[in-house]
Design brief:
Layout: E1 12-13, E2 21-24, E3 33-36, E4 39-42, E5 52-54, E6 63-66, E7 69-74, E8 83-84, E9 89-90, H1 105-113, H2 116-123, E10 141-146, E11 152-153, E12 157-162, H3 168-182, E13 188-191, H4 202-216, E14 221-228, H5 236-243, E15 251-255, H6 262-277, E16 283-286, E17 291-296, H7 307-320, E18 324-327, H8 337-341, H9 347-366, H10 377-381, H11 387-394, E19 403-407, E20 417-421, H12 427-436, E21 441-446, E22 458-462, H13 465-470, E23 477-478, H14 488-503, H15 510-513
Helix pairs in contact: 3-6, 4-12, 7-14
Length: 528
Amino acid sequence: MRSEITISSETLLKIGPKDNVAVALVDLYPNHRYKTAGREICVSSAIPKAHKVALVRIEKGENAVKYGAPIGVATETIAPGDHVHSHNLRTGLDGILEYRYTPDAALRELLTETSGPAGICNLSGQFGIADQSHTSGIPDTFDGYLRPDGRAGTRNEVWIIPTVGCVNRTVRILEERARKLYGNRIDGIFSFPHNSGCSQLGEDHLTTQKLLRGLIRHPNAGAVLVVSLGCENNNLENFLPVLGNFNPERVKFLVTQNCDDEYEEGLKLLDQLTGFASRTGRTPLPLSKLQLGFKCGSSDAFSGVSANPLCGQIADLVIQKGGTCILTEVPEMFGAEQELMNRAVSEEVFHKIVSLVNGFKSYFKRYNQPIYENPCPGNKKGGITTLEEKSLGCIQKGGCSPVTDVLSYGDYPLCAGLNLLNGPGNDAVSCTNLTASGCNIILFTTGGGNPFGAPAPTVKISSNSALADHKQGWIDFNAGPLLEGSSFEQERELLFRQLIKTASGQIQTKSELYGYRDISIFKDGILM
């Protein structure tokens, strides 16, 4: 499914030529006639905007089709003009599936011309948006902080990372005091409390360590103070082998049980760390240094029509420039996973995607939970009926580029291009995962609104203008004009220019301005 979404001024939007439902761009009233794709439909009942209306008769047991793909099975006969939603449509998904690798024709052609790992990493630069002429006036660089490992920071901050939740208040106090003393030296001083790091076993313990390692190594952190209690499972003796090599000028450690006054000792270390970080300044860097994460939360049915495909075009553009994009929320790939699998650059990557998807399904089954218990109540209120409908809209954020690799918790991408990252759809957890994998900016689309912000700058993109007007303190960019006659070309350029300014530190995101910077660590298992 690779639909080219064209939004007209009509009141109903038929996305794909094979679709038998359309999206209401405005509230629809009973016994009124509305236009779509050169025809008129008489609506039989009141239908809220963003919800679906049947274009043809859909028999009981037949599929409703949107984005050119099935989004569910009719539970009763649906007449043309009827509201299509939870009352007459159910998911068609069931159980763990078997998959076949059937790469797209365009990808097959490129694969025959490319060999070796380096070639695969470069494939993403040859695929995606065909016509880039409209971007000729957009800058090819941003002003970032070049790190010794070759990665780029969009911010130069000092981060305070606790190894365990017992010292959460300690790191908050250190943050508050250090800001007053040293905050003017750098872009900011921030602490990231969490509720992990002790009483965890096996994979959960390792996942916590890998995610904290990813945060400590993050390129937006010019320096890091790691704060430990001393007796926790994740004490320094246990954690340092996972952390690996580090620059002792950039990363310092405070064990609070070993100090007479942890605040005095911590402020001495933060004095040194802010001094070290302040030595690095912004410099023009190529767009290949951008690493973007993509997330959607509190989605509505417009998300898959406006904000998500707009992000997909940004992803394709950055990948064309040699950059890296990461797509996560594995449960919100269910029902659209074959599209991603068909874009795998190799059978090896295809099998990684299969393991990613079926592994998360097994996680649900292990706890005797339904695999397809999605979308959430807010999604349904916004017009999304089934998980396959949500997923087909969700993966639009990944654009059209090939999938170059699959990442686990705390992994950094080894290949440029589109990477898939393990993790749930939960907003805080998935944004933490994206940050720990090194994303220096996150693009977060929303239809209902969410103020959440990750440690990395989190650009909130509304799917509709009503939300942007209502929550101006949350939304950074409004994709709503796409529903009102603006073109993707126009909005893509506006969003991309804003992205460059954000990456260059010329503007802050709303979540940065209001202090929304939080993490939440994924857990699967018991606590001792």
